[in-house]
């Protein structure tokens, strides 16, 4: 065997162990007994230590030194790009720090959940300070004197720079704010749902929606969680959703969103299974799939016409007159508190808020104790509404409790990518809406599978989107789509 073969055999086992670790995290969110949290933290820390030891094994360095990347094909070179990058980053992080973070993050998740339920930021603050301290230590180790936030961002969006995202987000903001003001000032405001929807029936329909969007239940499952998420890759990809008796859209569109993530992982070429190419290439690209499934397809007028009929069959008359009114209700704009429930006009404003605050925390410019006030002041400025309780403010997201600093901006980057992909897809499939009106998503999901999903980590993130779209990605297609859609709904 060559050094490359030896390295890939070793990497396959490392990837498999990483999948096991992810499964433990999924179980913790869905099925684990509450009293098992302490033991699970020990288990996660132990497995993290094993993975860190494998990822920093001197043999990996020896193999990397022995391999001439130029002798490999495109797949081999892409594998080496990922392994070299991962090895270089992991070697900079002390094993002690990796294990300490794994244990703390596992414990912090439960502490955050309790604090959120109790509306008690003070009860969570000491833990968040510990998480932040360790993340800043990690960032310093990775940055080599460079920008701390960029070092963390690179974990989720390789090659991205906060300064570039700041410029992109800065271009988004004025048109989003102007659109929001026109929409909320419009004479016609769509009605909200007022009926009560049986939660067992919601779950029945939500499973149908996942399958309608191409999710393979033979290699996946749907469970309930406080915060919907997806987990796994290859032949075991799991998603979660949540229900609310008075808001079935929360369930249905959370499911469609997570189905986008899940289908990305399920549709990666099987040849890449348990290799560095066998996962989504970045969180921004991942989010592009979940957002285009949820919004440009799932909230489009053609598909909502079909969904209206499905809901009438399941729930009977729920107080919406027809498919046109239903489309407007699905896309109703309001200044809500919760990012995951936000309409398309407001969503990126939620993300920009978090992006700016977490950059300030990592830079040392914002203390944890001052986070609630900073959040609340920014929310009033951006949304015109005062935050009423911590669970609607800085305690609403799980991300910071588990150390995911640098993750939030990939949500808006994913929206930008989704806008670009939607433009390219509709140019390629001009009759797309005819199928969507009958619940047939296959032309859309097949286009995304062929142009994005099948490649896994073969290409770099921005390169993949440009290849799929045929143009350099920018915020313009997203903004054009939003203005056309909501201008039509609201007559502005």
UniProtKB/TrEMBL annotation:
Keywords: Carboxypeptidase, Hydrolase, Metal-binding, Metalloprotease, Protease, Zinc. Gene3D superfamilies: 1.10.1370.30. One of its GO terms (molecular function) is metallocarboxypeptidase activity. CDD domains: M32_Taq. Zn(2+) binds at residues 257, 261, 287. Broad specificity carboxypetidase that releases amino acids sequentially from the C-terminus, including neutral, aromatic, polar and basic residues. It catalyses: Release of a C-terminal amino acid with broad specificity, except for -Pro. It is an enzyme of class 3 (hydrolase). The active site is at 258 (proton donor/acceptor). It comes from Profundibacter amoris. Belongs to the peptidase M32 family. Its EC number is 3.4.17.19. Its cofactor is Zn(2+). SUPFAM superfamilies: Metalloproteases ('zincins'), catalytic domain. This is Metal-dependent carboxypeptidase. The keyword Hydrolase applies. Binds 1 zinc ion per subunit.
